[in-house]
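Hey, I'm writing a tutorial for new members on how sequence and structure tokens pair up, and I'd like a real worked example in the thread rather than a made-up one. If someone can provide the structure for the chain below, I'll link this post from the tutorial.
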Amino acid sequence: MRVLLTGADGRLGSALQTRLSARGHAVSGYDVTRMDVTDWEAVRAAFDETEPELVVHCAALTAVDRCAEDPDRALLVNGFGTQTVAQACQAHGARLVYISTNEVFDGRAARPYLEYDTPNPINPYGYSKWVGEQIVRELVPQHMIVRTAWLYAHGGSNFIHTILRAAREGQPLRVVTNEIGSPTYSNDLADALVRLIETGRSGTYHLINEGQVSRFGLARCVLDLAGHRETPIEPIALAEFRRASRPPEYSALRNFAAAQMGIRLRPWPDALSAFLRAEGLLQE
């Protein structure tokens, strides 16, 4: 299958490119230097060159606080950029896989969100991704919307790396107790996405490592597994943590739809242990 992949230089995008290529798909990966998704002419040229049967749209502005500081930019990239990609899919008859987020929900649920619960984003990042979801549904009949949450990957910086760096440097740790979600290992997500894509199905899916935990609980688990059991963490409320964006307090997701096809990700503690082992940080 001919696949056009946006955001190919990102952690998820690069993992997907490797896995899809290994499965025999002809993958053309594009980063922002090769194709700005907000530039119709650039997008059209890329589609004309590759003639994709499937487009996996990973490209996005995912810096949540930056989206809060510049909501128009978030909407331009995550909304209008998705519209441009979707219109190109429409013109070429290509299927579209759109990567979305738990932050399309408002965090007021009493149980993990299911795929067809009603979104109600409370910050500019979540709103921009919700706009993207609606555009995909309107313009591309054959589509998958795949929501994930609290993604972490090898390389770059993420919550896990930040916690461990602070512990190594002896910095005080203050972590929120009432922000709850589903931490997800990018390698596990990429494996599950490839399986889901190859079903040829459409619809909305939640792909996350199973289970839920608070930011505080995740930080404590990271420290304990990496040999920092003696490092204290001060528990704080979300309202005490000053940042540009307001995240939903409870945004755990439940994988119901993909699970019916046998596609599940392992529990988050197992995935975290595997990640730390691969990083050479797991104390066994």
